[in-house]
Amino acid sequence: MNDALAILISGSAGNWEPRRWKQQFAAALPDRKVALLPQDAVDPADIAYAAVWKPPAGALLAFPKLKVVFNLGAGVDALFAKPELLPKVPIVRAVSGDLTGRMGEYVLLHVLWYHRQQSLFDDAQKRREWIAPDQWAAPALRVGVMGLGTLGRDAAIKLKTVGFDVAGWSRSRKDIAGIRSFAGESELPDFLARTDILVVLVPLTKDTRGIVNRKLLSGLARGGVLGGPVLINAGRGGLQVEADILGALDDGTLIGATLDVFNTEPLPPNSAFWTHPKVRITPHNAADSDPAMLSRDVAEQILAFERGEPLRHVVNAGTEY
Questions:
Q1: Band of the pLDDT at 44, cuts 50, 70, 90?
Q2: Quick check: do 4-94+289-306 and 98-281 share a fold?
Q3: Environment class of 34 (CB within 10 Å of its CB; exposed 0-12, middle 13-18, buried 19+)
Q4: Of residues 20, 209, 280, 284, which has the active-site annotation?
Q5: CA distance readout (Å), 252 to 13, 220, 230
Q6: 284 in active site
């Protein structure tokens, strides 16, 4: 029998309904045993591959012949929360053109919302008032993309194509035509100081947890065309110190925030973010993983791996991305 695939998903609805993933993987790997755990009976020794999203801590250690773990989302922080409970096999993160494109759409949508001052028109419509505020050109707005991996790079290029003044920051310098690259801790202050809209797409690691804090937000540009800086976080909730964001919104350090991710999800009904007049909330859907597309991608990687080809997008355990 071909090496079996185990699916371990902590989810219950929408794109994360586990049986939806089993159906797609069964279609993508018709000649292979696909087991949805813990529901399906399977010999742990038959499992060679695991496709996971936030599996129970230590669950992957139950498979003695495991060869590769495929993470079904872009972020692997849930796996590395307890690295000592991970098997010593390659971990592959989800990277697909579909997921990357969705994130780019999200970032572009919300940057444009602030750029074109849509909140003014929404409020004016409620008052039945015809208004004509000044409108600046796209190059006057300075957007900073924090994190220039696959998702950040694509978002930065899309923003540049529209005409925005785009720069990026990452741990190591990147070479992207027309986009200034800042790198490392020493260049972070200069990156922030030229940024009107900060787009956060860095991976969540032990080094980046809580990086979006009062100190960072206080370093953003003043006197730009928006009248103050804006935060867009579509990365991970653990990147942000939420009390600091609320405080920055209340005292004018930030004039607005679009948040797709939070420390606790779903966002509790009593969270101050729900009713804050300067906050736009989306339910962690900036770049949903598509079961059909990702299952096909994982299937292709498994077959290529068995032909002796190298795996793509393997996570570096040292950097956790």
A1: very high
A2: yes
A3: buried
A4: 284
A5: 38, 12, 10
A6: yes
pLDDT digits (tens, 9 = 90+) for 293-321: 999 999 999 999 999 999 999 999 988 88
Annotated catalytic residue: which of 236, 280, 312, 313?
236
Annotated domain spans of the chain: 4-94+289-306, 98-281
User: Encoding tokens for residue 299?
Assistant: 């299937």
Is pLDDT larger for residue 64 or for residue 75?
Answer: 64
Instruction: State the DSSP string of 73-87.
Output: SS--TTGGGSGGGS-
Whether domain 4-94+289-306 has CATH 3.40.50.720: the reply is yes
Task: Kindly report, residue by residue over 207-226, the tens digit of the pLDDT.
Answer: 999 999 999 999 999 999 99
Q: How confident is the model at residue 197 (pLDDT cuts 50, 70, 90)?
A: very high
What is the distance between the alpha carbons of residues 309 and 290, in angstroms, rounded to a whole number? Answer: 25
Could you tell me which of 34, 16, 23, 20 has the C-alpha nearest to residue 302? 34
Active site includes 236? yes
Q: Which helix (H) or strand (E) holds 100?
A: helix 97-115
Does the structural domain 98-281 have CATH classification 3.40.50.720?
yes
3-state DSSP of 108-175: HHHHHHHHCCHHHHHHHHHHCCCCCCCCCCHHHCEEEEECCCHHHHHHHHHHHHHCCEEEEEECCCCC
Q: How far is CA 235 from the centre of its chain?
A: 4
Model confidence at 259, pLDDT cuts 50, 70, 90, reads: very high
DSSP state at residue 260: S
- CA-CA distance, 202 to 210, in Å (whole number)? 11
